[in-house]
Amino acid sequence: QCEEGYICLQGYGDNPNYGYTSFDTFGWAFLSAFRLITQDYWENLYQLVLRSAGPWHMLFFIVIIFLGSFYLVNLILAIVAMSYDELQKKAEEEEAAEEEALR
After folding, report:
1. Average pLDDT, integer, range 93-102
2. Residue 25 pLDDT more than 80?
3. Smallest Cα–Cα separation from 47: which of 57, 35, 33?
């Protein structure tokens, strides 16, 4: 059943990428969004959405790619910095313990 003003194309064909690229259910949509945020072959998803839904959806991709990438890079840098800080503190504690043992 199609809403008024829409055309349904049932049986038109399978979803792209062997059925993995789809917004038919929440799970497949989440997988596509995760693929976009991690920038894993996102260009193909971008082209498919633009061809099927129109050029206005480019704004969504611009926001996600630029802001999502910025957030992801900052998150990774924060984790690396925290790990480095913890390792540095452990090394200082070990040096202090060695100096105490030598006295």
Report:
1. 93
2. yes
3. 57
